[in-house]
Amino acid sequence: MDTILDTAKSWLTDFFDSETKKEIENLIAGNTEELEDRFYKDMEFGTGGMRGVMGVGTNRINKYTLGKSTQGLSNYLNKVYEGEDIKVVIAYDCRHNSDTLARTVAEVFSANGIKVFLFSELRTTPELSFAVRYLGCHAGVVLTASHNPPEYNGYKVYWTDGGQIVPPQDREIIAEINSLSYEDTNFNANESLIELIDKELDEAFISASVANGNFDAQGKDEFKIVFTSLHGTSITAIPEVLKRAGYRNVTIIEEQSKPDGNFPTVESPNPEETEALSMAVKKAEEIGADMVVGTDPDSDRLGVAVRNLEGKMEILNGNQTMVLMTKFLLEKRKERGFKGNEFIATTIVSTPMMEVMADAYGVEFKTALTGFKWIGKMIKDFPQSQFIGGGEESFGYMVGDFVRDKDAVTSTLLACEIASQAKANGGSMYKDLIDCYVDYGFYKEELISITKKGMSGAEEIKQMLKDFKENPVVSVAGSKVKYIEDYNVSTIKNVLTGEEKPIDIPKSNVLIYETEDGTRIAARPSGTEPKVKFYISTNAPLPRAEDFQRVAADLDHKIAQILSELKLS
Q1: In the chain, which end has fewer C-beta atoms inside a 10 angstrom radius, N or C?
Q2: CA-CA-CA-CA dihedral for 474, 476, 477, 479, to nearest 10
Q3: What pLDDT does residue 32 have?
Q4: Per the database record, which ranges form the Alpha-D-phosphohexomutase alpha/beta/alpha domain (predicted)?
Q5: DSSP symbol at 165
Q6: 272, 301 Cβ separation under 8 angstroms
C-alpha cells in the first residue's frame, strides 16, 4: 500500500491540474480501496490497445495517461522516421470525453512537430484504418472503448499499413512510453499542425465500402432491413452505404440513432448480447423485415438476425456470420477463377469450420491469436497472397484488405447482399447456414465469460487460468483429450503419443484442449475487459438439412454436459 500511496502522491505536483489533485487528495483521505484500484498499476496495451475506466489515476483513462502514451508514440515516430514529415490521423467515437481526449492527443502530437489530421466529428474505427493509408500517414489513433460499458474509454494505435500495431512496433512503443514520466509529456500544441478532416474522407471510405461489399444481389427492392447503430458511430456511414448499394427498405431504430455515450436504451452496447438487439428485433417482427443489423459504438462489430426455419428472427453468433460471409466471398472468387494465392483467416478460438471450408475450396487457411491486429499482420507479412476475407467469433469481420481491422460498415452491406440474394433465389440466409453444415459438418460453439473486476479480480483470473493448466482436462463428454495447445510456450502436445511440436504463433496466455472427436475447449483472459473467457466448440455430421433440429439438440446437450463437467454452468 505504501508504494501505491507514493504513486498517488506523485500526482500532486504542479504539473497536474487542480481538479485532478483535489480528487486524489480526497481518495487519500477516505477511500483506500478505490485509491488502490486507480494506482496499483499502469494502464497497459492489450489485444485492442489501451482500454479502461475513465478517471484520475495511473490505472485509468485520462488526459495524463493518454498524454504520456502519445508522447512515447511521438518519440518513437520521430526516431523511426527521422527527417521525414511525419503524419498521423485521429478519430474518436461517441463515448464521454472522446472528443476532448482526441483533441488532447492531437495537441501532444503537434507539440512534437507531427502533422495531425483530426476528424471534426465522431467517425467509425474502420474509417480511421482506411484513412491511415488514404492520407499516407505514419500512424493513426482512435479514441474508443468499443463495446465496453459507458464508464470506459480507450486508445488504439494503427501503423502505416492501416492495421493495429504488432510486434516489434508494439513492444518498442511500450518501452518508449515506460521510459517516460508523466512530466515528460508536452501538452503545448502547435495549432498550425492540426487539420480538421471530414467530407473528403467520408466520400472515399463510403465509396470503397460499396465497391468491396456490393455484389449486385437480386431482390433489393423487396428486401427489408432494420438497422440500429446502438447510439454509436455507424450512423455516419452505414445508412449511406446501404442506400448507394440499392437498398431502399431500411428502417432505422430512431431511439438508438443519436450518438450517446450513456447508451440509454441498452444494458450493454454490444451486439454479442441478445438484449442489445431486442428493440431492433421487435421492430423487425412488427414490420415483417427480413434482417436486423446492429453495430457496436465504434462500428467494428456487427450483430445479424435473420428469420429461422419457423419464420422468427434469430440472432446469428459471430462464428455463423463469419462462415456465411466467407462462403459467399469464396463462391464469388471461384466464379472469377482462383489464382492460387488466395487465403482466408480466423483466430485460434473461432470455429474450426473455417479450415474445413478453406480445404474444400483449395485456398490457404491462416489462423492467428485473438484480435484483428494479427489478421492485419498476415496481410502485411504475405504481400504476394490475396486476402479474401476473415473474422473471429466475437462478431468481427473484414472484407478484403482495403480496411485492416474488423469492419462492420462493409460487413453489414455484405450480410445484406447474401440475405437478399438468398431470398431472391427462394431460400434464406438461415437455410444457407444449414447447407454449410451439411457440406462441412455441423459446428456448434458456446462462449462463457466470467467477470472479475479490480486488483483482486485480476488475481482471480490469473489463478483460474493457472488451475486450468495445472489440472489438465483428461476427457470431455466421454471423449479423451488428444491435443493440448499451450500458447504460453507455443507448443502443441499429443498427450496420447507424447509427441510435442512447436506452434508458429506468438506466445499468449491461451490454453486449448482438443479431444479425439474434435471437441475443443479454449481458455484465455480478455485483453480489453476484466474477464476470463472459455470457448467450447463441438461438431457432428449433418447428413441432410432435414436432420438439423435433431443434431442441433444433440450438440446442445453435449455443450451442457461439457459446461457441467468443467463447472462453468
Answers
A1: N
A2: -70
A3: 83
A4: 43-180, 208-305, 317-435
A5: P
A6: yes
Please give the CATH number for the structural domain made up of 44-197: 3.40.120.10
Comparing 319-440 with 442-565, is the CATH topology the same?
no
Distance CA 65, CA 529 (A): 18
Question: Burial level of 383, CB count in 10 A (0-12/13-18/19+)?
Answer: exposed
Give the pLDDT score at 1: 61
pLDDT band at 122 (very low <50, low <70, confident <90, very high): very high
Per CATH, the number for 203-304 is 3.40.120.10
How far, CA to CA in Å, does 405 sit from each of 41, 164, 410? 29, 7, 11
Which ranges of 116-218 does DSSP label H, i.e. alpha helix? Answer: 125-134, 169-178, 199-213
DSSP assignments along 273-324, one per residue:
SGGGGHHHHHHHHHHT-SEEEEE-TTSSBEEEEEE-TTS-EEEEPHHHHHHH
Residue 168, SS3? coil
The reported pLDDT for the residue numbered 2 is: 72
Grid cell of 280 as nine digits: 431492433
Report how far Cα 541 is from the mean position of its chain's Cα atoms: 30
Q: Which pLDDT score is estimated for 564?
A: 95
pLDDT tens by residue, 3-58: 899 999 999 999 999 999 999 999 999 878 899 999 999 888 665 578 999 999 99
d(CA 495, CA 474): 9
Reduced to 3 states (helix: H, G, I; strand: E, B; else coil), residue 217 is coil
Q: Position 9: which residue type?
A: K
Which residue in the block uniquely carries the three cell numbers 466475437?
394
Distance of alpha carbon 172 from alpha carbon 72, whole angstroms: 10
Is residue 272 a contact partner of residue 316, using CB atoms and an 8 Å limit?
no
Contact call for residues 399 and 277 (beta carbons, < 8 A): no
Check residue 46 and give its pLDDT.
60
**Tally: H helices and E strands in the chain:** 17, 24
Which of 146, 394, 420, 428 is the catalytic position? 146
Can you name the CATH fold of 319-440?
Answer: Alpha-D-Glucose-1,6-Bisphosphate; Chain A, domain 3 (3.40.120)
Phi then psi for 543, rounded to 5 degrees? -60, -40
Q: Residues 344-362: pLDDT tens digits?
A: 999 999 999 999 999 999 9
pLDDT, one tens digit per residue, over 478-509 is 999 999 999 999 999 999 999 999 999 999 99
The CA distances from residue 64 to 55, 98, 105, 143, 561, in Å, are 10, 14, 10, 14, 48
pLDDT at 152: 95
Percentage of the chain lying above the pLDDT 70 cut: 99
Assigned CATH topology for domain 442-565: TATA-Binding Protein (3.30.310)
* Residue 483, number of CB atoms within 10 A of its CB: 17
- How much is the mean pLDDT over the chain? 95
Domain boundaries, the chain: 1-40, 44-197, 203-304, 319-440, 442-565
Please say whether the beta carbons of 326 and 350 come within 8 A.
no
pTM above 0.85? yes
